[in-house]
Design a protein that fits this description.
Elements (H helix, E strand, L loop, with lengths): L1 H11 L5 E8 L4 H11 L6 E9 L17 E7 L6 H9 L7 E5 L3 E3 L3 H14 L5 E4 L19 E8 L5 E7 L10 E2 L7 E5 L2 H4 L11 H11 L3 E4 L5 E3 L9 H4 L3 H16 L24 H8 L1 E2 L4 E3 H4 L16 E12 L8 E9 L5 E8 H8 L5 E9 L5 E8 L3 E2 L3 E4 L1
Parallel strand pairs: 1-2, 1-4, 2-3, 6-11
Antiparallel strand pairs: 4-10, 5-12, 6-10, 7-8, 9-11, 13-14, 14-15, 15-18, 16-17, 16-19, 19-20, 19-21
């Protein structure tokens, strides 16, 4: 019976290959990630790796010598100075796709459960059996710390919740534990896409490629919506498949080496806003600016907005979404009236701008462009003391308000001896 089951499993997964996409930038975790990925795969011979290896000769530990003659590996050898960012690297990898059954996009800092490959394939096939022709498994997955691993791995699966629109218009997500995951037997619907964990049909590497002109911010929300409009249904795995390192503490990032990254990121914001119609920006559907990096034709942005409960043209959200309820959002009688505006922002103020020692409170104000106040909160004396006692160059003040994006913020401290002190204000 045991031999029979093995034969059946082998036939079930016969010739099914996985194209694993890894963009690595001067990452000491790359080798450990590759080793763990191979070690924990049930069928390691069916894995095909596309790696954009962005490295420096100074990093003597950053070597792929043991894999250069391995037929499973397709390695782009890139001097780190020639890199133009994560999306460029991911696009370069996608050109290495050779018709594999599935594709799996990762970062270069991961750990994996035993038999992760068959677990993912079984999830995908289960979704196809339920009528989802093009399912996509994606998430901000649970975390690990390479300094203490395997101790300290998060032992609950995560999903992606809506947090806020950034001032530039990009949607910001936050990970959270999947409610009730212990009793779940299948993946759950998602609104969003994670670039560090995305498993789906191999054709995705051709149909929904990363725009190489994108830098970083805007990458994931545009891919989510582009995938959706190409007919892909997004899901979060209901159990842990792998772990991801989030901090990369003390290690160099691409933007640390690239003085032009800010310009590229600004351009990314511009393209994101126009492609998705954020704040009413739009482009002619015949415009070739986006080419193959544009939207699909099987569904529309409006279809995704109904699914997600997020309206891009005016940065509004349905309560179902802000309460972190699972997609798809339920139908409502008055669809347009069901959206409301929410604005979250982190105010960064130089610690050196607080010069007094006897603050009584601090007014935090948001103003519209005509000078009308649209929000105010007061930090009490003990809150100011706590923030000033921290480390680093900045203090951070969180603002969470209902309403449209304000024009500017004002931080206005008050001291016992001097009364109102100098206003600190910035246009958002």
């Amino acid at each position: 019976m045991v031999i029979y089951n093995i034969i059946i499993k082998l036939l079930y997964f016969m010739e099914e290959t996985i194209f694993i996409q890894i963009a690595s930038y001067r990452d000491p975790e790359l080798l450990n990630t590759l080793k763990d990925c191979l070690l924990n795969a049930e069928f390691p011979d069916r894995l095909r790796f596309g790696i954009c290896w962005q490295h420096s000769d100074e990093d003597v530990w950053d070597t792929l010598d043991q894999y250069k003659d391995d037929s499973r590996f397709r390695i782009l050898d890139v001097n780190y100075k020639d890199s133009t960012g994560a999306c460029w690297a991911r696009n370069s990898i996608q050109q290495l796709y050779q018709g594999e059954t599935y594709t799996f996009q990762l970062d270069s800092h991961h750990r994996f459960i035993r038999n992760w490959d068959t677990e993912l394939i079984n999830m995908l096939k289960g979704l196809q059996a339920k009528g989802h022709a093009k399912p996509l498994l994606t998430s901000y997955i649970s975390s690990y710390n390479p300094e203490t691993d395997p101790r300290g791995r998060t032992q609950v699966p995560w999903l992606m919740n809506f947090d806020r629109f950034t001032p530039e218009g990009v949607i910001f997500f936050l990970p959270a534990t999947i409610p009730g995951w212990e009793t779940m037997t299948e993946p759950i619907p998602s609104r969003f896409y994670s670039a560090h964990f995305a498993f789906t049909l191999g054709q995705f590497a051709v149909e929904v490629q990363h725009d190489p002109e994108f830098y970083f911010h805007g990458e994931e929300i545009t891919i989510a919506i582009r995938a959706f409009t190409h007919g892909y249904d997004l899901f979060h795995p209901h159990k842990i498949i792998a772990w991801h390192e989030y901090t990369r503490k003390g290690r160099v990032k691409q933007w640390d080496d690239d003085s032009e990254w800010g310009k590229r990121n600004t351009r990314t914001h511009e393209k994101t806003r126009k492609l998705l119609g954020i704040d009413g920006d739009s482009f002619d559907s015949d415009d070739d600016t986006y080419g193959k990096y544009g939207l699909g034709r099987l569904r529309t942005i409006a279809d995704w907005e109904r699914h997600a409960g997020i309206r891009l043209k005016d940065r509004s959200v349905q309560e179902w979404t802000t309460r972190n309820k699972l997609a798809p959002n339920p139908k409502v009688e008055d669809y347009d009236a069901s959206f409301y505006h929410t604005f979250k922002h982190v105010i960064d103020v130089y610690r050196s701008e607080f010069t007094e020692t006897d603050y009584t409170f601090c007014a935090v104000i948001m103003e519209a462009e005509d000078g009308t106040g649209v929000y105010r909160q007061d930090l009490e004396a003990h809150e100011i003391t706590a923030k000033l006692a921290g480390e680093g160059e900045w203090i951070h003040i969180n603002v969470n308000m209902q309403g449209k994006k304000p024009y500017k913020w004002i931080v206005w401290p008050h001291s016992a001896t001097k009364g109102w002190c100098k206003k600190i204000e910035r246009v958002i």
